[in-house]
Each structure stands twice: as structure tokens, then as C-alpha cells.
Amino acid sequence: MGSDLKGKTALVTGGARGIGHDISAALAGSNVVIHARNVTDAVRSFAEDLAAEHGVRTYVVTADFLKPDGVDQLFAGIAAADVGPLDILINNAGFETTAAAEDMPVAEWQAVIDVNLNAPFRCSQHAAWQMIEKGGGVIINITSIHDSVPRKGLAHYCAAKAALKMLGHCTALEWAEHGIRVIGVGPGAIETDMNREAIEGFGRDKFEGWIPVGRLGNTGDIAETVRFLCSDAASYITATDIYVDGGYMKNLVRYDDRPDRRG
């Protein structure tokens, strides 16, 4: 499968931490552009290690999607680095806050919408022009089970992810004639270095009881799914969504245990 990516170029937004970090690593059969809001020595070392291990080119480009020109800044940086046209775009960057809908400041609403919806739209536009000229490409939008499942305190985040899901469907239809596939990948409860402490505080056992497969997801679960969808093996998959959640979103209504009729 790695040979499918050889010679291609992928951009991973939010590609230095959490899920994005492992997606960047999984796509390292291609040349990888790692977007980060803040570029640190650790981010540079990560990119250098990927390049050395896989014999590819890696680039680190900074941009702040909370700024109106953030996406333009990102693609200007990519052009300045002489990366060349993109074959793969992973719209992964995102964030959430928690606030009751009646108390949510407009600025907080706008910030979550800007990063989780507006930035992926603008990135997709930039990438689509390059992919149209090349004759094809793949765009993966990292959505969430909360594009379909509401959650208290996350009205802005859920609304943004639901809109991103539909954006993916619309652009998939519009760009299919250009050989561009657009797919949504919806993570469920995924453990990362950033949320591990919160998971332990809330109760790991609760998640393990709720999720049918009996465990939290990990970042590799998402990264391997993305790598497959970017490969030639997935060439007939577009305009759809794949939820990587261990069955979590199908098990949100919990009845009493059924009696054991065996024996």
C-alpha cells in the first residue's frame, strides 16, 4: 500500500500533534507537508525524522486558522517552500471549547466555526485547483461522530462538524469529474497525549463499558484508515463517511441487559 503514495505530496493540517501526528507518519510514503499553528523544535525534529526514515521530503509550514488570512498564509508558505502541487489534503486541524448554548460568546462560536469549518473549506479550494490541474487527488475531512450525534456544551463544534460532513459530500460530487475523491473520517472516543489525563479523570472504565469493542480508540486507528483511503485500493470510495469509533455511536441508547437464554 505504501507504494501507492510514492512520489505524491500530502498536506496534513494540524499535522504535528495527536491524530494529525500519526496521520503525517502514516502518509510518509509520500512527501508530507506538516501544518502547525506553532512550530517548535519538536515539530521540526518530527519532520526530519520522517524524512530520514522514509526517504521522502517533509516540510513544516505555520499558519493560524483563527486569523482571517490563515489559510492564505499556509498556502503562501507551501508555495515559498517549492513543494509542488498537492495530491492529498487531510483537513485535520480543529479544536473545541465547552459552553452552554445560551451563554456561549459569539467570538467563541466564531472561532470554533472558523477552524473546524471555514479553514477546511478554504484549504479544499486551494487544493482543488492544484488537483484539477494534475487530474485528481484525495481530500479527507476529519469530522467526528458528533457530526451526527449531539452533545451538550458543544453546539458550535457539532454544528461545524455536521456542516463539514455535508461540505465533503457536495465537493465530492462537484469534483468527481476531475478525479478528486472527498471522504469524511469520523473519529469516536480517541485517546491522545492531550486528553489522556481527562479520560482518566472522567473514568476509563465508563468508556470501555459504553464502546462495544471494549476499548478507547487510538490515533493509529484513525491514521491507518486515512492511509487506506488515500491509496489506490480505495479508488472507488468517495462522497461518503467512515466512522472509526468501535461501534460507539450505534450504542448510545442503553437498555437493561438481556437475559441469558443459553443453556
Which range does the strand content fall in?
Answer: 15-25%
CATH architectural label: 3-Layer(aba) Sandwich
Let me know the CATH homologous superfamily. NAD(P)-binding Rossmann-like Domain
**Average pLDDT number:** 95
Count of helical segments? 8
General shape: globular
Instruction: Give the number of DSSP strands.
Output: 9
- Reported by name, the CATH topology is Rossmann fold
Spatial separation of the terminal alpha carbons:
46 Å
**CATH class category:** Alpha Beta
- Number of separate domains: 1
Largest sheet: 7 strands, parallel
- Radius of gyration, in Å, reads 19 Å
Describe this structure in words.
This protein has 263 residues and is an alpha/beta fold. The protein has one domain: 3-Layer(aba) Sandwich (Rossmann fold). 42% of the residues lie in helices and 16% in strands. The protein has helices at residues 18-26, 41-54, 70-80, 106-134, 155-175, 196-202, 204-210, 219-230; strands at residues 9-12, 31-36, 58-62, 88-91, 137-142, 180-187, 190-191, 217-218, 240-244. Strands 3-2-1-4-5-6-9 form a 7-stranded parallel sheet, with helices on both faces. The chain has a two-stranded parallel sheet with strand order 7-8. The longest helix is centred in the middle third of the chain and has 29 residues, at 106-134. The radius of gyration is 19 Å and the shape is globular. The N and C termini lie far apart (46 Å). The mean pLDDT is 95.
